[in-house]
Amino acid sequence: MSTRILLVTSSILGAHGQSNALADHFMKRAAERDDLAVTQRDLVADELPHLGLDELSSWQVAVEARTSEQQALALRSDALIDELQAHDVLVLAVPLYNLGIPSQLKTWFDRVMRAGVTFRYTEQGPEGLVTGKRAVILAARGGQYAGTEQDSQTPHLKAMLGLIGIDDVTLVYAEGLAMGEARRDAALKEAKQAIDGLLEAL
Fold first, then answer.
1. How confident is the model at residue 1 (pLDDT cuts 50, 70, 90)?
2. Where, if anywhere, are coiled coils annotated (predicted)?
């Protein structure tokens, strides 16, 4: 049985985006394996609107009681959650924009993080319902942030994944990409080697 991988990209720079370059390398190497099946979701090419009250409210209505408009709105979240649940590994290719994640990626998280569906509140606190999965984050950054107070992106991503039950998270960083050609080339080479090692372990 193939390992099913969901690869989510969110760079607005297209072919010029370094996180997309890491995603492309991942896809190329994965395609060499018969036991890996990769689904790609490009959140820029297939952009989601920001979450609004009408869509949020549609989730609170019982399926059989939803209007046609509410059914269409709820389908966005339902389909994304079904897609996530259907895969074994989630790979997020993430650029760093203003010390955070792209807004396109936030709209995806806003729809897969649903109380009562992908997590629930208990007397002991929230409990994730997306279990038995692992995540890989391919992080591309112009500066050097990992391990510093300015890296708000890493804990944010890990916290959101953890809330829905994905605690097995591996980080691959390509940093210093805007700090000179030599540093960029070395960082990308190292990150691609790390990706190769991850794929060998899948």
1. confident
2. none
